[in-house]
Design goal:
Length: 384
């Protein structure tokens, strides 16, 4: 039996983003092992989506911060022990600390193929100088012990091409994690049925026909920057009536209390609804009139792709990843400018509720990305 190990810092990452790619390895005859912190599922409140996947799970006490030295040393030792117990042919790391510790633990084992998918480098055009000072040299050095460095946007790909990988190593570019294009597909002749579904969903969610719904999906964190939209709504309320506007946020995270206080301080309790983590975001995408992605940093945002699939008008911060997906087809604004968000929201409301088609969506389909990952796995494992 051949063995492949997937490493992520948080256990919800694989069922959220990587499940289809694991099937590639399973079809190649690999037993899949999963090392993560299962006490920190992050996407959802438990690990039920891992049931029935056929993976063997190994608890590793990962933490997300690189500055918690003792905890990171403990996780490193747990990985080393795991590598000594099981003869892995492949280690595929995801998430920043999973990528650091996984590659360090595997560096003395040249028989293991080591891949790392960078879901967005912390150093990028416009990033704070401290990010370049801390993360860039670390990633550049870790490339020397990496056989395959997989990037998901053009800016990161060009940056990674400057690194020196392990002998015979290669930098790859894949189009994110891929999304199904059929979940919200529209065919001629069924528009009325689609509309009835949407109206039924809105009614079930308590949304009145005249209400205009903005939607964001993402962790409640500083990086996702939901607070800027709340501040923009407050600014908009100071000059016009927004009683018919609602802003739904799907997500959970450490900024929940801070956001709740900001909502109360801004007197927007009727407008802004924190929905918590939602497994079936399709429902809210169908109910929404416009999607907002206010992030300060993204690699290639899945939530944005899902909004594109639904045909929603989009307002997004002008950052790497978002620019690559919707530049020229959406309203892009500065991530820290509430005035620009307020103006964009007012403009979108005036434009009405018309859906649209995005030209780049097909290049990010699940089937397209699966073929990209098949080529990468086969290229790195043909001699195994």
């Amino acid at each position: 039996m051949k063995h492949a190990l997937i490493i992520t810092t948080i256990s919800g990452f694989v069922p959220q983003f990587e499940q289809e790619h694991l099937k590639i390895l399973q079809n190649m005859g690999y037993q899949i092992h999963y090392a993560s912190n299962f006490n920190n599922p992050h996407y959802g409140s438990d690990n039920h989506r891992l049931e029935g996947t056929g993976m063997i799970c190994h608890q590793v006490n990962f933490v997300r911060s690189p500055f918690l030295v003792f905890q990171n040393l403990q996780a490193y030792r747990q990985l080393k022990k795991l590598f000594q117990a099981i003869p892995f042919d492949l280690v595929h790391c995801h998430t920043p600390m999973g990528g650091v510790l996984g590659r360090l633990a595997a560096r003395s084992m040249p028989q293991i193929k080591v891949l790392y998918t960078a879901h967005g480098f912390h150093f990028f055009r416009g990033a704070p100088f401290r990010n370049w000072l801390l993360y860039y040299p670390v990633e550049r050095w870790l490339a020397h012990i990496t056989d395959g460095l997989i990037t998901i946007n053009q800016e990161d790909y060009l940056q990674a091409k400057r690194f020196h990988l392990r002998k015979g190593g290669k930098v790859y570019r894949v189009n994110g994690v891929g999304i199904s294009l059929t979940a919200s597909s529209k065919k001629d002749g069924v528009f009325l049925k689609e509309r009835q579904n949407r109206e039924g969903i809105r009614s079930t969610l308590g949304i009145l026909p005249e209400e205009y719904v903005f939607l964001s999906i993402g962790e409640l964190s500083r990086r996702k920057n939901h607070q800027i939209v709340i501040r923009a709504l407050k600014r908009l309320a100071e000059k016009t009536d927004i009683s018919f506007v609602r802003y739904f946020i799907c997500g959970e995270g450490r900024e929940r209390n801070a956001l709740r206080k900001l909502i109360q301080k801004s007197r927007l309790e009727q407008q802004v609804i924190l929905l918590g983590y939602q497994e079936n975001v399709e429902v809210f995408l169908k109910a929404a009139d416009c999607f907002i992605l206010p992030s300060r940093q993204e690699g290639l945002p899945v939530a944005l792709l899902e909004a594109m699939r639904e045909g929603l008008p989009i307002i997004a911060s002008k950052i790497r990843g978002s620019r690559e997906l919707v530049e020229g087809e959406a309203v892009l604004v500065a991530a820290d400018k509430k005035e620009q968000y307020a103006d964009a929201m007012e403009k979108i409301i005036r434009m009405g509720r018309k859906r649209r088609k995005y030209s780049r969506l097909n290049d990010y389909s699940e089937s397209y990305v699966t073929e990209q990952m098949k080529r990468i796995y086969r290229e790195n494992l043909t001699d195994k």
